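Sample log: Tetratricopeptide repeat protein.
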Amino acid sequence: MLAAAFQTAVARSDWAAAVAALDGLIALAPSASLSYNKAVALRRAGRAVEAAEAARTALAQDPAHGNALFELGAALMDAGDRPGATDAFRRVLARHPGDADARTNLAALQVAAGEPSEALAVLGDVGGAEAEQTRAAAWRDLGDLDAADRHMAALPAATALKIATQGATGRIPLDVRRWRPGQGVP
């Protein structure tokens, strides 16, 4: 009955009901799998701190649960715990070096921490819109606006505009950043 309630709640994206069903299942038979699912449901419900705790519970039950470790990193990232998220994603990559999502998330955290060169190295050849967004931000922060422009060209206009106007040092319009003394008013 609880398993069916969980499946129905997930199908409806009713994350509060999914968490309630999982709490019932966990009370009957705790497992890393159920704790991991609870972490996912909590994060989707916008409850990142609780999601991180559920992911930690899953890892305590099964330290090799790679998905729980990734979910811990994602929850900590959502909660604003950059050092904790960085550590979790590094641990994921130590186990699974090719995990594109972990590499993309770690690179985004490195850009936010003012480490754009490290972010580019972690990304390597990872594809996808999020990787391109992180690359563009990294090149922007390194001051290579031509490289940033090349990567922004593949992104939706609103995303590219956000990257162009938000730098590591604050919001500075891209045209102003390209301005040099003696060029007149941008």
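Observation: Strands lie at 166-167, 170-171.
Observation: Residues 15-28 form the longest helix (14 residues).
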